[in-house]
Amino acid sequence: MCTCITYDNGDFYFGRNLDLEYSFGERVVVTPRNFPLAFKRSEPLSSHYAMIGMASVMDNYPMYAEAVNEKGLGMAGLNFPGNAVYPKYSSKPHQITPYEIIPWILGRCASVKEAADLLKQTDLIGIPFTSEVPLAPLHFMIADRESVLVAEPEAEGLKLYANPFGVLTNNPPFPFHVMNMQQYINLTPKSPENRFASGLQLKPFGQGMGAIGLPGDASPASRFVRAAFLKWNASAPKEEKASVSQFFHILDGVAMVRGMVITEEGRADITTYSCCANTCTGVYYYKTYDNHRIQAVDMHRENLNGSQLISYGLSNEEDIRVVNE
After folding, report:
1. Is 136 strand, coil or helix?
2. Do the beta carbons of residue 278 and residue 246 sit within 8 Å?
3. Is the pTM of this model over 0.90?
4. Which residues partner with 290 through β-bridges?
5. Residue 45 to residues 105, 106, 135, 144, Cα–Cα distance (Å)
6. What average pLDDT does the chain have?
7. Taking a C-beta distance cutoff of 8 angstroms, is the pair 322, 36 a contact?
8. pLDDT digits over 184-231, tens only?
9. Mean pLDDT value of segment 259-288
10. Please, how many CA atoms are within 13 Å of residue 123, restricted to the half-sphere of its CB?
11. Spatial separation of the C-alpha atoms in residues 58 and 55, rounded to whole Å
12. Catalytic annotation, pick one of 2, 4, 109, 275
């Protein structure tokens, strides 16, 4: 389970919580412009836009969970079990596997519009990386400052939806989340007015009562509503540290604490990491479940004309500053 959001506060930010009960060998990975990207059923990209994000690297291939490219386009894959369908064959011009789709789109596209035009001619094909690495059931959020798109591979094909909320979680499919949001139109961060009955003198007895009814559980539908409420009502000074801090506070509002969600296998689902990328500057920020200190990797401090992957392992040990040593 995961939550992805955007945040426009002067600069444009894109990121997510990765909620999982295990590590997938994730690292912060920079793919420079001349790293050769190979695809199962598509022509390789010998040169492309540079990108940065969280990925596992297998056989020198970056399998991104999410990333942003140097043009300011971001893309993330989120769990979509029971709904994601990957055909083995397709008549569409482009056939890309789910683990290839993020570098393929971000390597070629500078905007959501370009990505949408390309995805209309694309199917996600059910070919795993290897027989030992099965495909994850995913849907995707793609965003730039101008617009946000959701791409969902279902039995009828790859469906594309405009996303006015700038939020995505997991099941059910995106049209459900759009309809479900209508139930919460009365929520407000302000003090509520008495709409119960004009003849009764009712008034709030505490702060925050305008949002009574905001769901607090960890289900995908509830996280979608809560993340949208927090994102659209958040405010911060238009300054980098304040914006990044606010972004992580929004993600903290939908994060999973160890023990609150137990999978069918008896494992604890946790927010293994949270990330925030400034799509304007190419700086990728992250923190992990076991280390709350925000770490940063600046894509533009690397040689983006290189031909080798650049990666950084995560700092997972809690970094506590003792002030009275």
Report:
1. coil
2. no
3. yes
4. none
5. 11, 11, 22, 22
6. 96
7. no
8. 999 999 998 998 998 999 899 999 999 999 999 999 999 999 999 999
9. 95
10. 18
11. 9
12. 2
